[in-house]
Design goal:
By secondary structure, this protein is α+β, with helices and mostly antiparallel strands. The chain is built from eleven helices and six strands. The chain binds zinc ion (ZN).
């Protein structure tokens, strides 16, 4: 039976990030020994399945080339290492030349949140942070090129503005993105290993959903009180996020059931918002992938 019990227990902070004072109060985070974020339990099994899929696709492509077949997708699979390298380099360069870099003088709160999250997760280097024009879209992502790692936050997400301003939500979201980096999701080799599975329904999207739960665990570890605001802004945007009832969203993970809700989730790169809210609230178990 599913449980959607609200967080009620509080534990004293066990370990403070270097250079930062311990938070006043830690809610129970469950699943996270010593307050550190935990990887979703299905992430590694799904990653192994994805790498196996890519390996088979690669071997089949080599075999087809050897027999003289020259399909377009065969060429794409064989060129994947180069295509991925070029795409990552281009994506990084695009932020470097167009993005507003977070520094102590530009978006200093974002800059500080990046450093805080990196310290909390024990990362040796703070990722670069960029703000780009969102034009109404609510989004953020993390990626890398070479040894460099960076977080991009769309300006609309960064605003989380107006009367509903919620810095905790922004710290959760930046913690989520830095968590992707800390968990290795932005690695070239990992993305190359997942290359073919991205084109196969269910396998690629399921791994992606597991990674999102892992990143949410990081976001929650970084700023526990930011979870309701993060779900609110994703559900209703930067102005109306304060009107979203976190518990009501989480409760509906239990009531909105059936084949089609299940299908929407299975085909999605991110867990559906109701399930995501439920996973953030119930820290006694991993979020549901299927
Ligand atoms: Zn994510």
């Amino acid at each position: 039976m599913e449980q959607f019990s609200p967080v009620v227990a509080h534990h004293p902070p066990v370990q403070a990030a270097p250079g930062f004072p311990p938070p006043q109060m830690h809610p129970a985070r469950g699943l996270s020994p010593w307050g550190m974020p935990i990887r979703h339990r299905l992430e590694i099994p799904l990653l192994v399945l994805s790498i196996a899929t890519t390996t088979v696709a690669y071997l089949v492509s080599v075999a087809l080339i050897a027999t003289g077949t020259l399909d377009m997708w065969v060429i794409i699979v064989l060129l994947a290492p180069i295509l991925l390298f070029l795409a990552r380099g281009q994506m990084y360069a695009s932020q470097r030349v167009n993005g507003v870099k977070m520094t102590p003088t530009q978006f200093p709160d974002g800059y500080r949140m990046l450093a805080e999250a990196a310290a909390r997760f024990g990362m040796p280097q703070v990722p670069d942070g960029y703000v780009i024009l969102g034009n109404g879209r609510i989004n953020a992502f993390a990626s890398g090129h070479g040894f460099r790692r960076y977080v991009v936050v769309y300006s609309d997400m960064f605003e989380i503005g107006g009367q509903a301003r919620d810095p905790d939500a922004l710290a959760f979201i930046i913690g989520h993105e830095v968590g992707h980096i800390a968990a290795g999701h932005a690695s070239y080799w990992r993305q190359l290993g997942m290359f073919a599975s991205n084109y196969i329904p269910v396998i690629g999207s399921s791994l992606s959903r597991a990674q999102e739960y892992t990143a949410d665990n990081h976001g929650l570890c970084n700023r526990p009180y930011g979870a309701p605001g993060a779900i609110g802004v994703l559900a209703a945007g930067k102005y109306l996020m304060g009107l979203v009832g976190f518990d009501e969203m989480a409760d509906r993970a239990r009531t909105e059931r059936g084949f089609f809700p299940w299908l929407v989730n299975v085909l999605s790169s991110h867990p559906v918002l109701t399930w995501r809210a439920a996973a953030l609230r119930d820290r006694s178990r991993h979020g549901r992938i299927f």
